[in-house]
Amino acid sequence: MTGASSPDALLDGLDPEQRTVATTLLGPVCVVAGAGTGKTRAITHRIAYGVRTGTYSPSGVLAVTFTARAAGEMRERLRALGAPGVQARTFHAAALRQLAYFLPRVAHRTLPRLMDHKAPAVAQAAARLGLEVDRAAVRDMAGEIEWAKVNRWTGEDYQREAPKAGRGTVAGNDHTAIARLMTVYEEILRETGAMDFEDVLLATAGLMTEYSEVADQVHSQYRHIVVDEYQDVSPIQQHLLDLWLGTREELCVVGDPNQTIYSFTGASARYLIDFPSRYPNAPVIRLARDYRSTPQVVWLANSLLRRGGRGQRHGDVGAGVELVAQRPAGPAAAYLAFPDDAAEATGLARRVARLVANGVPAHEVAILFRTNSQSEPFEYALSEQSIPYQVRGAQRFFARPEVKRAVGLLRSEARAPSDAPTLTRVRDALGAAGWNPEPPPQRGQSREQWESLDALERLCRQVHDAGATTMDAIAAVILDRQAHDHAPAGAGVTLASLHAAKGLEWDAVLLAGLSDGLMPISLAETPEQVAEERRLLYVGVTRAREHLALSYAAARTQGGSANRKHSRFLAGLWPEDDGVSRPDVATDQDRMLTGADAARYERLVAWRAGEAQVSGARSFAILPDVTLRAIARSKPTTVRDLAGVRGMGPIKITRFGAAILDVLRQG
To answer: What's the pTM value of the predicted model, to 2 decimals?
Structure first.
């Protein structure tokens, strides 16, 4: 019998495919992991199992992922699994650490200043060249420079290669002008002693290429490398990864081609897709069991990809996986159409209010949209409902002044002698920074600052409950998270672009603005670009655990021309496309249910989901939401009463009448 301290105890609770990942310790290994299939669980157990069996030295493992949050989560899981010495970092953080260590030692140079943003240097370069630019032009130019650098192109390379790659003009400037801009931009960086994020990777790769002692030391340090989100690797990241590996093949990659959504930044899924060709003996392990989402969400996600022609490459890495739901049935996805953008924002805010009133925590709700510019009306509508929210992609959590001050006070408190309980000391320190147990009544800056401090207070409590029971221990964890920019979850509804939502999940997700021109966005012109937009919507759908709503507005402004249609990706999925009455396209009065009516409606929705699962039919084809609401409101007690509800014809009465009345009686 396996003891609790045995390495094999780490394998308990893993499904067969996850267990295969965890026990395949020597590379190369390719893991194709669908959304919600427990890939982080599988690879952290693999690392921990390798450490516990003596196959790996903790300091000899480098786990690389793409966000500070994901790296922080991986470190926390590895600590809990008994492998605290493993390095889990983003590509940039790992490279920056190496660059800061080796640059003074072998090149006798100090580390240049790392710029937060390219925009000032790009604007200065444009001015030197006499180019007239506005903020949007500078943003587009900065994006093009980033794209060129991740492809390891100089200005001269860009002028030659950009036409072959199909790159168009940028802010009205041709390839020659952008090549000149790149050259001047690099001159400005040298003059000011600065570097951008791409330079971190390029310079680290340059050091390893130029100085054999650097490569030798890295190779002796990291014997095993794991790369998460491998479908998002760029050419410069792959180049650096090859240098880190040297002649070894101890590499485990994990990715999902169906979640490739960063091609516009230079990322490419081809490294994942071609992995079996590069390493013919590498096992390909597929994780398809979805533990995150209900069958209703999984069905919609799979349907989106089927309509995109995924099945044409069945069986290879490029086809990804078709998800298999593991959770019980939940509510059907809601399809919402609104007359204009303002009505959409108001309608979704009211829907959020109902979710919160029915027990879904506000921080477990997200409204996702295609572009950051769509955020403002939802901010206003949520404020009108007095619902707290956070805009993801705004100022970094640990860079906020109130958070910086609070972290400093926590550190000071940890140094001071005290016999008071730890959490009392935490709250006293945060109180000195402006935190109170109750939020201020007004919205605006004071409320936003309180929410930041309250999120920090909740994080300290979570750290304490996880076993860090002293002030020193809590402060150490908070400082570590600050150093790695690993922010806590916010207290309010999340507003985020679909790109910013990658890697996250919520109990309830509302996908807004799903009209052609926004999804897919009008800038997507080639088949490859449109296919990436479909994958972006797939990523949005698979963020939802239980509640999912999809919406669009027919017009931009009130009284404007109602010329918008729902996204072409939803053709055949949107209810009206099959001649079924569109659910949730009704007046606000029709949609609003409260008290016992709302409870009856939720029971009816749950019943319908079960019927759909058994019959294989789509939920709205059984009965649309508008009919369920009418039943909930009219409270029929007999078949005769039920026949008086609009939408309940003789066929529906015969098939479902008795079951519906039984559901109502159960309440």
So the answer is: 0.76
